[in-house]
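Lab notebook, bench 4. The sequencing result for the construct came back, and we need a structural model before the next group meeting so we can plan mutations. Quick request posted to the team channel:

Model the 3D structure of this chain.
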Amino acid sequence: MQDIDELGIVQVIKEIVKKLEEECDGIYLSFDIDSCDGSLFPGSGTPETGGLTAREACYITQAVASSPKFLGMDLVELNIGLDPQGTTTELALRIIDSALGCRIGGRFE
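Done. Here's the predicted structure in token form:
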């Protein structure tokens, strides 16, 4: 989070994706919903205040999925039992759509 705060999400993710493209044959993203701000998205096993915003989470997924080396992704740690308002579940769907929209028709908003 310190790098994101100092450099911005776009710069951090560009550097990460570039390094992965240079060093890996393929990229698989495992997105942990616990990385999102738990004060806004409580439906995870370890909600913590100060994590990623919804916009940052979707940007990360879209940026990684845009790589020609992107192979797929999973989304982990969603606990709908801790999400009575459905906000975390909705975010999870938006994150998945960010990857799929990028791969099938560029629907990312």
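The domain at 2-103 is CATH 3.40.800.10 (Arginase; Chain A).
Will bring this to the meeting.
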